[in-house]
TrEMBL record:
<feature type="transmembrane region" description="Helical">
    <location>
        <begin position="39"/>
        <end position="64"/>
    </location>
</feature>
<keyword id="KW-1133">Transmembrane helix</keyword>
<dbReference type="InterPro" id="IPR037272">
    <property type="entry name" value="SNS_sf"/>
</dbReference>
<feature type="transmembrane region" description="Helical">
    <location>
        <begin position="380"/>
        <end position="402"/>
    </location>
</feature>
<keyword id="KW-0813">Transport</keyword>
<keyword id="KW-0812">Transmembrane</keyword>
<feature type="transmembrane region" description="Helical">
    <location>
        <begin position="211"/>
        <end position="235"/>
    </location>
</feature>
<keyword id="KW-0472">Membrane</keyword>
<dbReference type="Pfam" id="PF00209">
    <property type="entry name" value="SNF"/>
</dbReference>
<protein>
    <submittedName>
        <fullName>Sodium-dependent transporter</fullName>
    </submittedName>
</protein>
<dbReference type="InterPro" id="IPR000175">
    <property type="entry name" value="Na/ntran_symport"/>
</dbReference>
<feature type="transmembrane region" description="Helical">
    <location>
        <begin position="132"/>
        <end position="154"/>
    </location>
</feature>
<feature type="transmembrane region" description="Helical">
    <location>
        <begin position="292"/>
        <end position="319"/>
    </location>
</feature>
<feature type="transmembrane region" description="Helical">
    <location>
        <begin position="340"/>
        <end position="360"/>
    </location>
</feature>
<feature type="transmembrane region" description="Helical">
    <location>
        <begin position="247"/>
        <end position="272"/>
    </location>
</feature>
<feature type="transmembrane region" description="Helical">
    <location>
        <begin position="85"/>
        <end position="112"/>
    </location>
</feature>
<feature type="transmembrane region" description="Helical">
    <location>
        <begin position="422"/>
        <end position="444"/>
    </location>
</feature>
Length: 445
């Protein structure tokens, strides 16, 4: 049977969770929302809500032991067909893959840039980034294609010899690269201390309802929830795996890497008096590269290490986005893995090219939908609509449709009766309401 090993599962799931989100969504949101108070809030929401919902998604995969659509069908006591449709939230993962791999493509380009001379001021640096986005469609497409080939090659090898093997070496390597940068940041004295106080001394006056909702959204995205990655990987869990401990390890690794990335990024920002509120790609592609440039050759080495760690973080996440739908096509139509992947690949490739063209100046006008470039439409649709809807549906399914006794049997070896009761209550009443609140907010704002 093509199953993960226990450690393979934790690494693969952590590999999915740790991604571009940790590198720029997390530091950016921390930066924009007053630092440490946001981290405290993020931790509370991660443990209070995302953790609860994550266990629900795990139980669908573990109890169903097949792809999300068939697992839901198998587990629902009635209205099987209707419930099984919720498995199609996995299409969200394929949509994310299309634009996410374009961004990993930019990272490839930045690894290349890091070998030569880095831009030394933000105007020059901004111009390089803008030129990649708005004028160099061919370069973007080439880099995207390279990433696309690697990702599909890995998934074509299956869970054990593809996804697990990739994660078993990429995740530790990523961690070592990050450690190197972390120790380098430590040696930067004042900058590092400022980064620490920025990240760890809480200022709760900054927390508004809006920020609570943003932090919850980040917690879901960052743990790859709501698009069927968790149930898909859980279907290949070896028996006897401690579900609670594994989930806590995944969450711990995800937070640790987010915080380390944050410390590295902000140490540089403070050391060279960069702008802490500059967000998103700007923080990483524009600011950070100019800060590296100030260090001469050491800066080039650090830049290569930094972008390579981002590349690894991105690739281990991207493979997880493809697997759910591939698994479904194989089960439903009896396709070989290759055939299923070719179908998904065509779809992802076309959407990916559309994403590139939606930023490329000469064609951008043709790729505007709902007043947004196609790239942003996919991002919005997946993070703000599909992910939260799926999280609500899965928590209702596990909380109200599945039998409580079955869930207790699944979890009883890993948690006490009281803890189980708390989890069950949170799953039924806190998670759906909280997620509904984020969704409503995102739509109305
Ligand atoms: N968790 C990934 C990140 O933080 O970058 C993003 C992600 C991966 C979202 C896999 C969804 C997914 F299915």
């Amino acid at each position: 049977m093509n199953k993960f090993s226990k450690i393979g599962f934790v690494l693969a799931m952590a590999g999915s969770a740790v991604g571009l989100g940790n590198a720029w969504k997390f530091p950016t949101m921390v930066g924009n929302n007053g630092g440490s108070a946001f981290i405290v809030l993020y931790l509370v929401l991660t443990f209070g809500i995302a953790f609860v919902a994550f266990l629900a998604e795990l139980s669908i995969g573990k109890l169903g032991e097949t792809d999300p659509v068939h697992s839901l069908y198998k587990l629902a006591p009635k209205h099987k067909k209707q419930w099984s449709l919720a498995g199609f939230f996995m299409i969200g993962a394929v949509l994310i893959a299309s634009f996410y791999m374009v961004v990993i493509g930019w990272i490839v380009k930045y690894i290349y840039i890091s070998f030569s001379s880095l831009p030394s001021d933000t105007t020059q640096s901004g111009a390089i980034f803008e030129s990649l986005l708005f004028s160099e469609a061919l370069n973007s497409i080439l880099c995207f294609t390279l990433v696309f080939i690697i990702v599909f090659y890995v998934v074509s090898k299956g869970i054990k010899s593809g996804i697990e093997r990739l994660n078993v070496w990429m995740m530790p390597t990523l961690f070592i690269l990050l450690l190197v940068m972390f120790f380098y940041s430590l040696s930067m004295g004042d900058g590092f201390l400022k980064a620490v106080s920025f990240l760890f001394v809480p200022d709760f006056s900054k927390i508004t309802p809006e920020i609570v909702l943003q932090a919850l959204g980040l917690a879901f995205f960052s743990l790859s929830m709501g698009v069927c990655v968790v149930p898909t990987y859980a279907a290949s869990l070896p028996d006897g795996t401690n579900l609670v401990k594994s989930t806590l390890s995944i969450i711990f690794i995800n937070i640790l890497i987010g915080i380390m990335m944050g410390l590295v990024v902000f140490t540089f920002v403070f050391a060279y008096s960069g702008d802490t509120t500059q967000g998103g790609p700007g923080l990483i592609f524009v600011s950070l590269t100019t800060l590296f440039a100030k260090l001469g050759v050491a800066g080039n080495v650090l830049a290569v290490a930094f972008f390579t760690s981002l590349l690894f973080a991105g690739i281990t996440s991207a493979v997880s986005m493809i697997e759910p739908f591939a698994f479904y096509l194989i089960n439903k139509f009896g396709f070989t893995r290759k055939k299923a992947l070719v179908m998904i690949a065509v779809f992802v490739y076309i959407l990916g090219i559309f994403c590139v063209l939606s930023y490329y100046k000469p064609t951008s006008e043709n790729f505007v939908f709902f007043n947004k470039p196609f790239f942003d439409v996919l991002d919005y649709l997946t993070s703000n609509i599909i992910m939260p809807l799926a999280a609500i549906t899965f928590s209702i399914f596990v909380g109200f449709v599945l039998k409580k006794e079955g869930l207790f049997i699944l979890f009883s070896t890993f948690m006490s009766k009281n803890l189980f009761e708390i989890w069950y209550f949170m799953l039924r009443f806190v998670v759906p309401v909280a997620v509904f609140a984020i969704m409503l907010y995102q739509i109305l704002k």
